[in-house]
Amino acid sequence: MSLHETSPHLDVVIVGAGLSGVGAAYRLQTERPGTPYAILEMRERLGGTWDLFRYPGVRSDSDMYTLGYSFKPWSGEKSLADGASILDYIRETATDFGIDEHITYETKVVAADFDTAESRWRLTLEDTRTGETREMTCGFLYSCAGYYDYEQPHAPEFAGAETFAGEVVHPQFWPESLDYAGKKVVVIGSGATAVTLVPSMLEGDDAAAHVTMLQRTPTWISAVPSKDAKAELLKSVLPAGLAHQVIRTKNIAFNTAVYQFCKRRPAAARKLLTGMSAKILGDPQLVADHFTPTYNPWEQRLCAIPSGDLFVSIKKGEASVVTDTIERFVPEGILLTSGETLEADIIVTATGLRLKAFGGIEPHVDGERVELSEQYVWNGAMITGVPNFAICIGYTNASWTLRADLTHRLVTKVLGWMESQGHAAVVARPDADLTPQPLLDLASGYVKRSIGAFPRQGDRRPWQVRQNYMLDSITALRTPLGRSLVPVTGPLTPADESPVAAGVPA
């Protein structure tokens, strides 16, 4: 039985028992030992993304030395690990540090209202098995549920779908009993999920007969080694902890350099990526037709394929790629705008995820809903207009955990500062003359579809959500807290929510 189930009030509630929530609990335990806290998880198991997604080949698209925790060395052989290995790693971490004892499962936060008079959150919780609700309170609410909708994917309607004679599945809800052995499969999509599925469905005794990746537009794809040879060498000669830190530092520097290269020299980056793809595929025209996007590298997230597995499958003739648009589904498969029909026994709609702000939590203050789209995010963590509330969002150009861990540490610093100053509640107040910008600076379709419902970032620190871990690691924890965080002693007034003038001392 977790602490939440035996106590009606806790100092901190963490929402989500995935990679981020477990990391947040570790930081809270080690940097503020003795803090009464609980993790509320709507699913029946921990793991978040890595427990939910069960499609063939599901794996990380960031190296595990940076996606993993800095305090828990990754010991696996693969740099891009499979989902089951990552899930085991999260479970082991939670058990090793006693974090699992603080998790309450099948518990969803359906309402959250901050009472400024009492400086506490009033949470309405739903038992996802029975539908029954109950209430609890906490001093600080920390959402580690990410920004994806795990209950409903992006699922566009396709004309004629009801006429298709085969089976249609979405990777987010992969049927355990799906039999694709010896069958023709069409995967709709070109993102990380699609490029993972195609070669994975061609492996083993239950391999598909042929898999076609149908994309509307190409995505930038980069082949990477499935194993990090330098990392393995370092692990063989250095103690585990030291090797992990050296490898982590090496990979952070390399990934940052690649990103900066792509942003600053896009023409050279395009040439490099197309050249690498052509070398594996042996067909420059195929690369020009299907693997050369119109946008520049890292305007959308770069897809990594371990050992070039997708390209290898295409070169062998086991898989193919078609760039076209869908006219409609037909009984035998998909009719394309070009007039071609792709025959299929199974269609996989890897059409992407939907964004959902902070696990669906809609924060209220004194009974009034806060319009998130009108707020700013401070240091990528706290939101203006919402006291004692923080969110965890990762990098779009690097491992999620890098920013997440910085945010965990920042939250514990804020909690310690509040205690030292005698503040029961604080709220972030924006600087004057901020220029609003979207929270996520990506041109991806899933971002464009939903980002308007999220808080905004500004055009300068500490209101800018930078995509640079090296800079953030130096500056984030050194931000003067008193510069932007102001105490809340009663109902929020226009003065509490108005911008801070430049030059106010910390």
From TrEMBL:
The keyword Oxidoreductase applies. SUPFAM superfamilies: FAD/NAD(P)-binding domain. InterPro entries: FAD-binding_MO, FAD/NAD-bd_sf, Flavin_mOase-like. GO terms for molecular function: flavin adenine dinucleotide binding; N,N-dimethylaniline monooxygenase activity; NADP binding. It holds the Pfam family FMO-like. Keywords: FAD, Flavoprotein, Monooxygenase, NADP, Oxidoreductase. Signal peptide: none annotated. Its cofactor is FAD. It comes from the Bacteria. Belongs to the FAD-binding monooxygenase family. PANTHER family: MONOOXYGENASE, PUTATIVE (AFU_ORTHOLOGUE AFUA_8G02570)-RELATED. This is Predicted flavoprotein CzcO associated with the cation diffusion facilitator CzcD. It comes from Nocardioides psychrotolerans. The lineage of its organism: Bacteria, Bacillati, Actinomycetota, Actinomycetes, Propionibacteriales.
